[in-house]
Amino acid sequence: MTAVLQRSTEQRVTEADVRTALDTVIDPELDEPVTDLGFVRSVAVEGPDGCDVRVHLRLPTSFCAPNFAWLMVSDARDAVRAVPGVGRVVVELDDHHDSDLINAGLAADAGYRGTFGHEAEESLDELRATFQRKAHTAAMERALTSWLRADPARTEDDVAALRLCDLPAGRETDSLLSRRAALRLPLTPTSPVLLAPDGTPPEPGQVALTLRRARSVRISVDGNAHFCRGLLTTRYPGSDADQVFRPSVDSALPLEVLR
Amino acid sequence: MYSKDGTDYFVVDAHIALWDARPENQRNIHGKQFIDCFYDYHRNLSPEAEVWSYDEYLYQGGERLMRDVFVDGIVDHAIFQPARLAEFYAKGFGQTEEAFALAQAHPDKLTYNHYWDPRDGENGLDALRAAHERMDLKGVKLYTADWHGESRGWKLTDPMAQRYLALCQELGIRNIHVHKGPTIRPLDRDAFDVADVDHVATDFTDLTFVVEHCGLPRLEDFCWIATQEPNVVAGLAVAMPFIHSRPRYFAQIMGELLYWIGEDRILFSSDYAIWTPKWLVEKFVDFQIPEDLTEYAPLTTETKKKVLGLNAAKLYDLPVPAELQLPDADETATGPRDTDAADKNLAMA
């Protein structure tokens, strides 16, 4: 008996294990973990063996796009299922216009097409890839804008000559490299930082325009992230305590909220 | 007319609504979810003094609308942009008859735009003809994420939508306001993507496509297509209130729009009753892009005048006093406004 109890105790899954697994689940539009965004409403480890897991997720509005909602909820379920020793896993989305549909589809393991029926054609792979490209573009622009601002003598056209090894070590460069890796873009230290949306370096005459285009992507992604975070705290009072500060290339308080 | 420091601004609010979201009009839980979502937008982005109670937010009625929109004589003209939402609300969300009657009673102050939905098929084409005969429409509001039976979204490039656009062109309904939402068929793709606007703007050059909330949450996609299509315009609904709660973000939005499409193709909108126009106009006239955002030029008084009213007045043939009119600006740096040349110029980027 003692041995059996011992083994059961060793297998016990902790809430911290589950949250660590959920850290890998990214909101594709905002390029940020659902844990940092405050989208994890609750984590419960339960069951007779202490290894069943129930997770509730929440979003900033009832009308957040259902395809992105599905990606996050199904990614969360997959991530929690991969935790060693985990038993039964239930992940549910609360208060969304498609909560019933999505939660039933997940519970039945119906997959994207089985859940959304005639509204689903093939898969969400292309959608995911589109937003991985945007995440890379935004990370690239942050690194380049920081580099430009570090020395007022630098011009937008100067970024054409900039190589990965010219970037200072730190969060922004790490972020760029990880997003390059996700897209299998070159990671060699001498490869150029500035890439057009198709992954190739732009022609000399197109350098500034490519940077400006990347800037519009970064402003869009960061602006959406701050708006979504704000809406979540309006919808769920107190949820700001679950949100992790999102750093910005602009300033310490880039998008200040005036009250 | 709004006057500040000796300067007069002709003001057009290019996006208002007269909605009814009261519980007796809600068909199902989605009717409540939808207005709750609007109310959270309202609470999240409004100055504290401008926040309404939930009950007064559900329905305003014509009398209150006239007071709210035209208070202090700031707004000269406002344009209804109704959403049908028939799957969520028994009598629909936008109140067609009430809004149209109000516009008829105040033709100098109000324009009623109607809506159509390609999923209404042939009957809907007849209905659009009839509506135009009765209402003499200058524009329509299209909500591509509206639900309709089994369908929860459509694209401007759908074959039936093309027939409706062709009918608009034939009838002279020139202003097509496009509002993107979260659902589309298939769900495989990004519902907020404005690529379909790009296509129809090329095919229907007599029509002007006003993309509401300037493409947000896809500002970048909007800027890119609008640069290439001279008949695509940015509506500032939902973007405007960031001027208070997130002024640096608002500065970036304005900076991007001015860089990519220039000052002649941006329209002020309050999105009443989500917000009210008075405080937005006052803040916009006082607004300036922060000096440390060196990538953007400062906003000029001319730009503010155009955005606040002159651009919309041009699209809707609204009479503007001669002394307040302004000439068009030069082309933006991103390329000529001629579509073919712009496409060539940008192809490499």
UniProtKB/TrEMBL annotation, chain A:
Residues 15-90 form the MIP18 family-like domain. It holds the Pfam family FeS_assembly_P. InterPro entries: Fe-S_Maturation_MIP18, FSCA_dom_sf, MIP18-like. It comes from the Bacteria. PANTHER family: FE-S PROTEIN MATURATION AUXILIARY FACTOR YITW. This is Iron-sulfur cluster assembly protein. It comes from Klenkia terrae.
TrEMBL record, chain B:
Residues 327-349 are annotated as: Disordered. It comes from the Bacteria. InterPro entries: Amidohydro-rel (IPR006680), Metal_Hydrolase (IPR032466). Residues 12-318 form the Amidohydrolase-related domain. It holds the Pfam family Amidohydro_2. PANTHER family: BLR3681 PROTEIN. This is Amidohydrolase family protein. It comes from Klenkia terrae. The lineage of its organism: Bacteria, Bacillati, Actinomycetota, Actinomycetes, Geodermatophilales.
